[in-house]
Amino acid sequence: MYSLFKTWAEIDHEAIRFNIRQIRKLIGPRVKILVSVKAEGYGHGAVSISRTALSAGAEWLGVSHVKEALELRAFFPDTPILILSSGMSGHTRLIVRNRLTPVVCSLEIARDLAETALAAGTIANIHVMLDTGMGRIGVWHENSLTFLKQISQIKGIRLEGLASHFAAADDPDSAFTDRQLADFLRVVKEVKEEGIDIPLHHIANSGALINLKETHLDMVRPGIMLYGIYPTPHYRSRIELKPVLSLKTRIAYLKTVEPGRTISYGLTYLVKKKTRVATLPIGYGDGFSRAHSNRGEVLIRGRRAPIIGIVTMDQIMVDVGGIDGVAVGDEAVLIGEQGGDRITAEEIAERIGTISYEVLAQLGKRVSRVDLNA
User: Fold this and answer.
1) Could you give the residue numbers annotated as active site?
2) Architecture category of domain 13-237 in CATH
């Protein structure tokens, strides 16, 4: 099955379906699910992840920009697709023509969309993003009521959603998150009192979805939890999730190395006793970070083998001297399970000083995606 693949990622679609079921248990039947499939579905493959998530009960897809939205629209002609980032100037025709739903943060973009929609004989749905403390995009919540009144009076657009984004929802005891939610709900209340009808209100990302039921509102936006990764270890006891991605390769070369030899660029690893070294065909050109140099591990024959020397663009070296029977062609697991042991994306992230999101999303196109249970 993998004869053509030097390095591959197995995508377990039954795990996606399981995670969607777990999300549905938390939020109930009324709340809609928007799955975040930006950055190629966090490195898993946006189209295949979207197809499975939608069939399992998700209703919306969330992407970062117009290009990602257009790629998905070709496969999902009738699914609502929300563009979660700003920077849509010059793209309004594409948005209207392909019935995409943008997040809007300025009157200029809103008017441009309205003009384009009216010229096309249609109405463009939009969601307005409020900034309640993320400091990224969005209208500051203190000034939002005037903005929303102006938006609601523009012909050619329909104010379908009101959204915001948490800055610290991964912290289960964040007072800042409580304040963000309170500010968002205050605006929701003020808008209703003004008689402005907005069908969808959404603010819950993975951390809030798990930890704060009061954030579920009309729609939730699960991201990392869809892929079986916990936003923080605190949440393991609150919901069961199954990891979706396993990263694997095979031993391409084996050699015996005597004491005194060095391994890889920069001579950073000195062999101190006779051992066997396996070369694996994966490197930072595949999205396997150089930060793994002299500190990462892989699973071979169910045992952990340390990465030695600097990670190169296309290859890494591991010490297999303590593992019996190792041969060229043996499977090596970089993320996933083998022989009762497991290396998780969370473990890797902690080891190299990053987050699991980056570990997964940076996996490149040279890594073949193999869909299981699709």
Assistant:
1) 38, 265
2) Alpha-Beta Barrel (3.20)
